[in-house]
Amino acid sequence: MTLFGNKKMKFILILFLNVVFIFNPVNSLENKILIKINNEIITYLDILDEMNYLKAFNKNIRSLEEKQIYEIAKKSLVRDKIKSIEILRYVDKIEVNQKYINKIIKLTQEKIGTNSENEFKNYIKNFNLNLSKIETKISIEALWNELIISKYSKKIKIDESNIKNKLLAKDNKFIKKYLLSEILFAVDKNNDINTKFSEIKDSIDKVGFENTSLIYSISDSSKVGGKLGWVNENSLSKKIKLILKNLKIGDLTNPITTPGGLLILKIKDIELTKKKLDLKKEMKDMIMLEKNNQLNQYSNIYFKKISRNTEVNEL
C-alpha cells in the first residue's frame, strides 16, 4: 500500500531507513496494563515480548541484567506506540508493501547469519517470536520514515558546489573515513550536562558503548547500538570534523549540541585510502548521506515535538 497520497517509498535513503531492528524479559501469567499512552495501552506481556525481540536481534543486550533489558524494552515500546499514534493520523492502518517487508527481512536474515526463511523462522521461534511481530516493527519504522520524508523533504538543503569542492580538494590524496557510533541524549531540568555525561561514561565503562546507547540514547540508532557506520569526513560539519580530528580510535567526544539533543560520538576505527576520485559516485554518495543526516535530525526533532503532546502514564 502506498502512503501519504502518491508518495513512493524512498528506498534510496538506505542509511535513513537502515535503523529498524533490535528489541524483548521474565515470566508471568498476569497480563497487567502498565502504561497508558493517550488511549493506547502497554501490558506486562507486551514488554516481555519486546524483550525477546531485543534479545533476538541484538546479541550485546543479552549481557545486561534483566531489569535493564526490561527498561530498554519499555522505552522502545513507548517510542513505537507514540510513532504509531502519529502515523495513524495520516493512514488507516499500519501496513506497507509486502515486497518491502520481505526485503528488510532478507537483510535481517543475512545479518544474523540464517541462510533460509525456514532457518530464520526457527531462529525467532527460539525467542517466542513470530513473523507478524517483526513485520509490524518494520512497518512502523518504514511509515515513520516516510512521514518524515513527506513533511521535511522540501526543507532539505544540499550545497552540491561545496561538496564538489571538498571532493576535488581530496583528489589523488588520502580520503579519511570514520567508523562512528552515537549516543544522543537530552538533559532533564534537574540534571545538568556534566552529571548526565558522567553517568553515561560510567555506563559505557560497565556495559559498553552499544548497550549504553540502548539505555540512554533517544535516537533511533539506539536500536542498533548507536552504530552509524563508515562516514566520510567530508560529509561532517566543520564543528564535528574539527572535534574528531584531534581524537584517536576508541575515543569519545564530549557532548556536542545539535538540534535534536546532545550528541556523543565514538570513533571505532579510522580508514585512510588513496585512490583516484570517482567524482560522480562520490557526489551521489555524499548527497545521499547529507540528506539522511538532515532527515534523521528532523526525525528526532519531530519525535520530541509530538512526545510533548502525548500523554504517557505509568499505572
Structure description:
This protein has 315 residues and is an alpha+beta fold. It has 2 domains: 14-155, no CATH class; 173-275, Chitinase A, domain 3 (Roll), CATH 3.10.50.40. It contains 11 helices and 7 strands. The chain has helices at 14-18, 44-57, 66-87, 98-112, 117-125, 131-152, 160-169, 193-207, 209-216, 238-245, 279-308; strands spanning 33-37, 40-43, 174-185, 227-232, 256-258, 261-274, 312-314. The strands form 2 sheets. Strands 4-3-6-5 form a 4-stranded antiparallel β-sheet. A 3-stranded antiparallel β-sheet has the order 2-1-7. Helix 2 crosses helix 3 (66-87), helix 3 (66-87) crosses helix 6 and helix 7 (160-169) packs across helix 11.
Write the layout of secondary structure elements.
Layout: H1 14-18, E1 33-37, E2 40-43, H2 44-57, H3 66-87, H4 98-112, H5 117-125, H6 131-152, H7 160-169, E3 174-185, H8 193-207, H9 209-216, E4 227-232, H10 238-245, E5 256-258, E6 261-274, H11 279-308, E7 312-314
Antiparallel strand pairs: 1-2, 1-7, 3-4, 3-6, 5-6
Helix pairs in contact: 2-3, 3-6, 6-11, 7-11, 8-9
Radius of gyration: 20 Å
Number of beta strands:
7
Mean pLDDT equals 86
Helix content: 40-55%
What spatial form do the alpha-carbon principal axes imply?
globular
Task: Give the count of helical stretches.
Answer: 11
Major sheet details: 4 strands, antiparallel
Number of domains: 2
- The class by helix and strand makeup works out as alpha+beta
Order of helices and strands: HEEHHHHHHEHHEHEEHE
| Distance between the ends | 36 Å
Strand content: 5-15%
Low-confidence stretches: 6-29
Strand order of the largest sheet: 4-3-6-5
